[in-house]
Amino acid sequence: MSEDNSGVTAETVKKIARLSRLHVEPDRLEFLADEMNGLLAWIEQLGEVDVTGVEPMTSAVEMAAPMRKDEITDGGVRDKVLANAPKTEAGYFVVPRSVE
Amino acid sequence: MSDLTKLSLEAALAGLKAREFSSVEITKAHIDACMDAADLNAFVTTDFTNAMKSAESSDAKLAKGEGGALEGAPLGIKDLFCTEGVKTTAGSKILGDFTPQYESTVTANMKADGMVMLGKLNLDEFAMGSSNETSYYGSVINPWRKDEDLVPGGSSGGSASAVAANICLGATATDTGGSIRQPASFTGTTGIKPTYGRCSRWGVVAFASSLDQAGPITRTVKDSAIMLQSMAGYDAKDSTSINKELPDFAAACDKGVKGMKIGIPKEYTMDGMPKEIEDLWQQGIKWLEECGAEIVHVSLPHTKYALPAYYIVAPAEASSNLARYDGMRYGERVEGDNLYDTYERTRAEGFGKEVRRRIMMGTYVLSAGYYDAYYLQAQKVRTKIADDFKRAWEKCDALLTPTCPSAAFAVGREVNDPVTMYLNDIFTVTANLAGLPAMSVPAALDNNGLPLGLQIIGRALDEETVFAASSALEKCAEFTAKPEKWWV
Amino acid sequence: MFTAKRVADKKDWLSGRDHDWEIILGLEIHAQVASNSKLFSGAATEFGAEPNTQVSLVDAAMPGMLPVVNAFCIEQAVRTGLGLNAQINLYSRFDRKNYFYPDLPQGYQISQFEFPIVGEGEIEITPESKNGDGEPCIVGIERLHLEQDAGKSIHDLSPDETYVDLNRSGVCLMEIVSKPDMRTPEEASAYVEKIRGIVRALGTCDGDMEKGNLRADVNVSVRKPGGELGTRCEIKNVNSMRFIRQAINYEARRQIDILEAGGEIHQETRLFDNKKGETRSMRSKEDAHDYRYFPDPDLLPIKITDKYIDDIRADMPELPDARAARFVEQYGIPAYDAAILTDDKAKGDFYERLVSTGAKSRDAKIAANWMMGDLFGALNKASIDLDDSPVNSDGLGGLLDLIGDKTISGKIAKDVFEKMFEGGAKTKESAGEIVERDGLKQVTDTGAIEKMVQDVIDANADQAAKVADNPRLIGFFVGQVMKASGGKANPQAVNEILRKKLGL
Questions:
Q1: Is this complex scored with an ipTM above 0.95?
Q2: Shortest CA distance from C288: residue in chain A
């Protein structure tokens, strides 16, 4: 089903882990690649299903989005917003520096 | 006074209303039972002090002849529902001591109806699992045992275990692929996943948004009806909430199945499935027939694709839903060398193995070059599965199937083989993919003396038929077995 | 239509070592919808609030929080789409764009990827050119979609940490994507000006570039004129018309230099540094973007009806193009002037107040000239917005009335205008008051003018003798008389009397 049949490699795992922001020790890459390939092999059977002309189902409810009025009904709850933060200062969230 | 922890929710509510006993009394009885049952590890967080306060205020209301539909009843809440001022963990390390400043709509509804919350029940981490072994707070143990510790199923293992062990009168749960029905089946309890959109998802930690639905786990079908009545209802804060009046679920339980057409889908069987489950299914067919239902045989040809489709859709949504757990605004931050490193370490150390596995799978199936082959294909297969059901509804009003292909298994047995573990949900996951209501009813004990459940699946928004058929099954099955109380 | 395949005018080519180069430009404009509350939450959007005070639990992406669409934002997108003469899609959808950044709380941005609410459209722009009138050209619109803004990261409050304010998180943006149809920096800035004019006329966005409520990303590439398209670079957040032109000029030249040195252009995002007038790479080590777009399962599709669109269309205010056409028709001013006076709602409104209020109706052409010449010149020089002009339409109108009834000459009027502009809002002196105070009233008394004329003729007898042969010398005499009158003599009367006396 996937375009290349070589499957998931250690390199793929590395890339996916990066995208997922999950630290993976280099010596785990091969194992994880094998594991993913095992799951994908099982999932591959989906390719058997003829889906010509079938619309993808994105929600189990068949309706259009409900909408709300443009009114200010929320906000002004800084204490609640910051209550669980690992670090705050002067009303800001404080995080590791995001530019060099 | 008889043992107040052995009552059904229905009977307890009646007793409270009639002032046969007070909420303080029944709450105290349950708190004692909870403390005795610490070995089950059903709770992540208990909140007994506040429970007693709630009980007192319920008693004040009851004394005046006031009070809501759950007034004074001690219940447990799956630790996936955010509860204001009470630590909410989703069974994960990554949330740390996260204490919500808000109350989920479902628990707010229940509190408004007078529930006494005993605490937050253990679960598989982020509701990902079928054995409750992925929780950062340890495995939950099934009150039912056979020589060794058994899993209670998952992900709502704490809820199922607590209800089976008589330490909560009932409990909330959630079901993304079978997380209410499979543990109910494993513990001899009853649980319903209502139609997608019945219960608001607002304030419930998201696993897979298009599949997640809250519901109750209880001791009887009627109890589920009573709890669902309180939990469900339209919520403008959830865009996928259904804006339709709720039927009277409890009344539906007494409707009977005379003239009802029950479909038997031939695909709901599996290689290696124990014969006793097959036999129980046949028994269930007989029971419903005896109650006046008409049995029709139907086909849901895409059933075997449901689980693989689920294992694309659910991880894909989860990989995105769990991106917010990054240690920046709440939860545990693991400081790294720089921002990137902090992200990676926070998430690698904060999430457990199964959650990481699913995030990786989800990221992979959505990534450039694979989206069409995996995600889009799965969503199209999902349409085919929903269409299968639509065709079945032309012939029948509800479906009868086994809930699970096995009884509860030993702790540690399946944990290392993901696919084997995933097969637990083979009969339950279809209802999630199609958004249909489905209920598990305990029907018999297997040769090892472990409970087995049967499942009723209904049309979207037709929980009434599900309750009616489930009630009929419940009456015929006369399932009264309880686990031996080994944990005290 | 001039789109896509259009080759820039030869005069707009950039010279190169071996051959000329042509610039290809496409723009992405982010326009903040002028809504009270955010796209998916009820928190306020007001600019300049204390950090994290306009943040709901949804905007902070607390566990279990869910988005609900703001109906007003959908309406504004449709309205803007109609203003861009674009296809409005009855079915559209919100997708998640997944990436990690501390000011993106959800770990994804809710945007529209596969099914935007507005599809293809086109607008006509009239770029300014060096010799005055510009040639109009058509710019294609690729799409308009809605998305959430991110929060703000502040790096200068601590040397080793970043401070995050989520007030902007979740604010509704319209991203308007053009086709790569522009060929000069002037076209690009005229395009932004035009879009700004449209959204302001529609009221869908306030167009305030200083507050970042309207910002542009510019895609720049260069090619051999009419040749294959080159690799493009995206220049982020260029937040004024002048910077847009500056950034494009710099970037085009940078790319040409690289190509001529035998290098190649890498597709990348670059940041414009307005202090240095340069663009620089934003590339970071973790640049491997893969946004993994998929439909947001927390939201359902947006479905609208033809009636919904028709109702909005029926309620549309007059747009710049239509207004310009009406100005030409109604006021008899040239199309070029009409285009300038209508490219922004405030200008058109000012002009219409100027010509149609007051006791007598004012000369529309003179009014246009005054606005575009003196008023805009003065505002430009002082870097003041028209909305904050020290001379309002009543003030300028009063001045025009004095010219109209010949109380002052056009030349004196310019001095009066300067005084009004400088005194500005503080003194609020009217033209009439200044004329009165400084004694600038035009001399219309024929006797007095005749005397001055005679004096000038007498003083310049030589020149007077030559007038018969060289009638153009009359200009000299007009000048002398005006000078003698301190500019106050009525030029028409001076002219008439001079001609009579000189026998012309």
A1: yes
A2: A19
